[in-house]
Amino acid sequence: MIPAPYRVRSRRPDRADTVTLVLEPVDGACPPFLPGQFTMLYAPGVGEIPVSISGRARAGGYVQTIRAVGAVSRALCHTPRGSLVGVRGPFGTHFDLARAAGLDVVVAAGGLGLAPLRPVIRELAAHRARYGRISLIVGARTPDALIYPRELARWGRRFDVRVTVDRPDRAWQGPTGLITGLVGRIGVEPGRTCAFVCGPEIMMRATAEELLRRGIPADRIVLSLERNMKCGIGRCGHCQLGPLFTCLDGPVLGYDKVAGLLEVEQL
Amino acid sequence: MEPIVLDTLDPLIEALRERGYAVVGPVVRDGVIRFAELGSAADLPTGWGDEQAPGAYRLRARGELVFGFAASPDAVKRFTHPPRTSLFRMRDGVPERAPVEAPKVAILGVRACDLAALAVQDRVLLGGRYPDEAYRKRRAALFLIAVTCAVPGGTCFCASMGAGPRAVSGFEVALTELSGPHRFLAESGGERGAALLAALPSQPAAAADLEAARAVAEAAAGRMGRRVDLDGVRERLVQQRESPIWNDIATRCLTCANCTMVCPTCFCVTVEDGTDLADGTAERTERWDSCFTLDFTELGGAPVRASGAARYRQWLSHKFSTWVDQFGAYGCVGCGRCITWCPAGIDITEELERLR
Amino acid sequence: MKKLAVFKLASCDGCQLTLLDCEDELLSVAANVEIAYFLEASSARGEGPYDLSLVEGSITTPEDLERIRRIRRLSRHLVTIGACATAGGVQALRNLADVGEFASIVYARPGYIQTLDRSTPVSAHVSVDFELRGCPIDRRQLLEVIAALLAGRRPVVPTHSVCIECKARGNPCVLIAHGTPCLGPVTQAGCGALCPAFNRGCFGCFGPMQSPNAAALNARLRAAGMDDEELARVYRTFNVTSFGGSCDA
Amino acid sequence: MTHKTIRVGALTRVEGEGALLVRARDGRLTDLQLRIYEPPRFFEALLRGRAFTEPPDITARVCGICPVAYQMSACQALESACGVTVGGALRDLRLLLYYGEWIESHALHIYLLHAPDFLGYPSGVAMAADHRRLVERGLALKKAGNELVAAVGGRAIHPVNVKVGGFHRLPSRAELAPVAERLLQALGDALATVEWVSGFGFPDVEHDYRFLALRHPTEYAILSGDVAVSDGTTFPVADWPRHVVEEQVPHSTALHARLDGRTGYLTGPLARYALNAPLLSPLALRAAADAGLGRVCRNPFRSIVVRAVEIVHACEEALAVIDRYVPPARPAVPVAARPGVGHGASEAPRGTLYHRYRIDDGGKIAAADIVPPTAQNQARIEADLRALVAPRLDRPAAELAGLCERAIRNHDPCISCSAHFLDLRIDHG
Ligand SMILES: Cc1cc2nc3c(=O)[nH]c(=O)nc-3n(C[C@H](O)[C@H](O)[C@H](O)COP(=O)(O)OP(=O)(O)OC[C@H]3O[C@@H](n4cnc5c(N)ncnc54)[C@H](O)[C@@H]3O)c2cc1C
Ligand code: SF4
Ligand code: SF4
Ligand code: SF4
């Protein structure tokens, strides 16, 4: 599979090291995606990495938020408006919102984990009436590291939104500490709640365990996993987690399917 | 088409060449028997055999057989899923697919385990949602001539994997080497094979020839150097994820990846992106990778499978357990290559037994 | 245009010569990068700072210690090329000896010699952005590192075993098929598994691979007939500072 | 009283690191030092205790430009200690490997290091801006040499295929065929090179050199031979220590080799040509004649022409070797360690390279001695420089410095080689 050329239509720095790009296909339409799916983004000559889709741009195309942590993500973050990048995908499983219909929804995001959850939240907002109570809990290392701050404020007017940071600055007035601390504050009704969780693996496991403890069944706690991926299509073998190919069987998976796997060290 | 008997292989080689195939077969080279292009049947390793044991391989003079040896260090994988291929080149932001090189190659002397391994790779590379078209092309360009194993190696266990020693499908022509007098029973496995055989000077096979061929395979099956007890192996490996045996193996395992390189079913790859300093074009190549390398699972600057134990566990569990979950078959065909070509002499059949 | 500089410390010249040995690429490299400072190849001495400095050779004298600090200050990326710069080189064998004895044997007036008692890699003194292994380095890897660093990407220089390259190249395994001692399983790839292709065992000129298990290999090498003394010698050749301890394992 | 000091801080376009210091007072030259600040690497010391099979791989690391020379001198010294001779096709392969190094090293020197002096460029790369085709030709020649070394030795720098007694693996005729094709091309390029460089403008300088080179009865000596001196002396390599004595002189860091009691002789292309020219290959001989080299060339600036002629010779001879090559039965003659002393010498591109080893009862190296060509030439290079500078002290310092650098480059000094030298003193004062 070779990447399709996409043009960077806009480039908006979110945070010091995080940029949101709008990518438009150079020719043809851009294939539809479901919340939680990802693309393989190619910085020409530099490399290719998996990046979640954070939204559909109004004029078509993908909205993707990238944090510069290494060579490829840095190159993508620095791609100027108008330049070409390569896109393959979308790939992988998605957050199944149909299953959430009629239920209370907890959306839990750690750090950049908010990026793949953004389409989930927008969907919830667009069809607010289909769901019960909606709570959004977000954790970030520092207030500075929070992405989508303006949207968070907007969502806060419609849902129960709570944000915690590990290391507050002087201006911070909200809660501090781990995101698991927020789970107790949102008041969960186990029989009618489902959860969508994305963030660093330890954060996801701690959150899922906390939700489990509160009685939410494991199959209604859905995570999005991260593994090394070179192909995105189950060919390179890198992303295996026990029997799963994270790129094909995941990245979005029920906690019932992965809890046992994540428990085993270095699986 | 009915089985026939061939006295020599030269007409077969010639006929393949006339059909535009480069004919590849086993030859003695640099102290091993391995695939190389054949000039004529005289290049075949007549009289040579091999002795294989964990971490050991030696050439040995052996009777008059042409195919009196076991699996060679290279598998058909080298032709269907080459060690390195170019995927695309990109000039001014527009990627151009690299042309797929799929030369017409006839491989003479393919073993049952190799055919079984091809079937496994077919499932992996063609059976899913994203079939690999380059693999399909290279695969289609092959003309496979199987040979029944008469002398299995000391590390072979294809019989217990249900993959040999006699090839039952996946070939165009299958040969069984018979002695007294020396001749080959040839059976076709497809139309191309039948057409080829029809064009060769031959006699029809007698009932005794068929019986002799069966006896060759049976004797070989009885002489397998090793076996694996598949009963419950898949579940067992799941239960044994935290076994201390993995750490014990890790003290011996070099994490050198030889086992995965020689394995005919291992398919893992990585990609390398680069730019040409001179003309600025970008290129992506794909090359064999292995679950034994650290970069394989690198995430956020650190590998998921940092320990040798975790990497060995991935390899063995994949072959005999999770492969079944993923592809509905084992990832091992019992060729024994990973045992012979492991510098540390680690024997998967023995380790599986210990993990009981 | 980005500026490239090449510096030499205690070494044989082979690694910097590798750049001149890129016969097919040299002129196009030079068209895309300003080779600003490269004494072996040019009498032009372009001023720093340099975008990329390639440093060959180990630190063995007080002057070179000073020089490497200056080079570091002048360089955006500092890349060491070869076993000398990366692991002290063959001259680091002195590190295992009594330098006083060494000098008294070799020099009539040892007090006159301004040399440090140890040959050390560049990274022992200044921060290094990338270390390219090999005695000598591989031409293709050198081009890759230059291209990658100038393009701002991570060089594709695998750190796994030589065995992977050996199998990809289609060599027979000399250890298994010939009984020839081979360091391939504990040595980093990069040479293209050259020695096994020439029917000889790898002797480790690219230094240790990412997760070397020398104890396990040594058991095998002893079985192949190497005694402890030979083991010690083979690890203590071109990469003494990085490989030297492997024989004690 | 007027003082004048000329410093060339770091010599460029030479292999290794050196500097030059010239002092004059009242129009008289008082001091001239070719300084080597290349750090010593103690090769002779670190070879002690190594297995007798190791010097070819280890001493190759003395010099990345001429590793084959080190491997060949080392092998022959060790073989002679063990009482083994390597002949026939194995010796032919050694010649082939060595010709590859000559082609590669000479092409490097001519096109990238030396010719820019005559055409007025700082480097070969800069020269390519105006003379792209020429530089490309040089690179193609160099590549042909490197490919030959790689085909026989495995890689161009520090080949891996050489061992005491022969090789690890024999190349097949089929593997050498493409190399031969390239050499044929290279031969044409080499002839063109002779024609090109012989047209350069050479300063009218001649020195009364005493030449030293190996001499072989039937070959333009490269791999082996007796040691011949232009005053008529000839001695076997094993007598080297009795004829060549290295001495330290008080004023200089440079070591001066004394040959039969007299200091300052020259080894290298000019010496080889003077002593062995009639044994050059036919095309090389014709090229030398057409270039007007004469029977003996004493102008160091014209050494570039001799090098070009030697490339022609190497290409032509290499082709002949490939043509007659039939892989021998074994890749190497078995060599068992034998206690004793062995001497070996061969002609590195820069001149005679001598090795001596003493092997102990356990098959280990007990003592090693290496005499590289540049160390031998050092005193002579300084003499060249004195002769050049003394009558021109009135010229501007920059001009003199440039001239000196050129004069040093005439001898293609390899400082990396010379700096490992047994008795070298590093004096940074
Ligand atoms: C399904 C999925 C969805 C994802 N979605 C997003 C997304 O929406 N947005 C996003 O930003 N990311 C996302 N990621 C993560 C993203 O793919 C990785 O951040 C990316 O692969 C990093 O690649 P890189 O080349 O930029 O960095 P790499 O070079 O791979 O480096 C990554 C990290 O490793 C460190 N590192 C690299 N090399 C070394 C070394 N030699 N030694 C020590 N440390 C080192 C770097 O400093 C950095 O911290 C997703 C991943 C997956 C699997
Ligand atoms: S796992 Fe080993 S025995 Fe099984 S197919 Fe692979 S190499 Fe052969
Ligand atoms: S099992 Fe053997 S071949 Fe495989 S990585 Fe370990 S030591 Fe290497
Ligand atoms: S020959 Fe050496 S490098 Fe090659 S596979 Fe065997 S052990 Fe590894």
Automatic annotation (TrEMBL), chain A:
FAD-binding FR-type domain mapped to chain residues: 1-97
InterPro entries: Cyt_c3_hydrogenase_gsu, Dihydroorotate_DH_Fe-S-bd, FAD-bd_FR_type, OxRdtase_FAD/NAD-bd, PyrK_electron_transfer
Pfam families per UniProt: DHODB_Fe-S_bind, NAD_binding_1
Origin superkingdom: Bacteria
PROSITE patterns associated with the record: FAD_FR
Annotated protein name in UniProt: FAD/NAD(P)-binding protein
Origin species: Nonomuraea harbinensis
Automatic annotation (TrEMBL), chain B:
Residues in the signal sequence: none
Database matches in Pfam families: Fer4_22
Keywords on record: Iron, Iron-sulfur, Metal-binding
Keyword Ubl conjugation recorded: no
Domain 4Fe-4S ferredoxin-type: 242-274, 320-351
Official protein name in the record: 4Fe-4S dicluster domain-containing protein
Species whose genome carries this gene: Nonomuraea harbinensis
Phylogenetic classification of the source organism: Bacteria, Bacillati, Actinomycetota, Actinomycetes, Streptosporangiales
TrEMBL record, chain C:
Record PANTHER family: COENZYME F420-REDUCING HYDROGENASE, GAMMA SUBUNIT, CYTOSOLIC NIFE-HYDROGENASE, DELTA SUBUNIT
Matches recorded under Pfam families: Oxidored_q6
Keyword entries, A-Z: Oxidoreductase
Upper taxonomic lineage: Bacteria, Bacillati, Actinomycetota, Actinomycetes, Streptosporangiales
Name of this protein: Oxidoreductase
InterPro entries per record: Hydrogenase_assoc-protein, NADH_UbQ_OxRdtase-like_20kDa
Ranges for domain NADH:ubiquinone oxidoreductase-like 20kDa subunit: 12-149
Organism: Nonomuraea harbinensis
Keyword check for Transmembrane: no
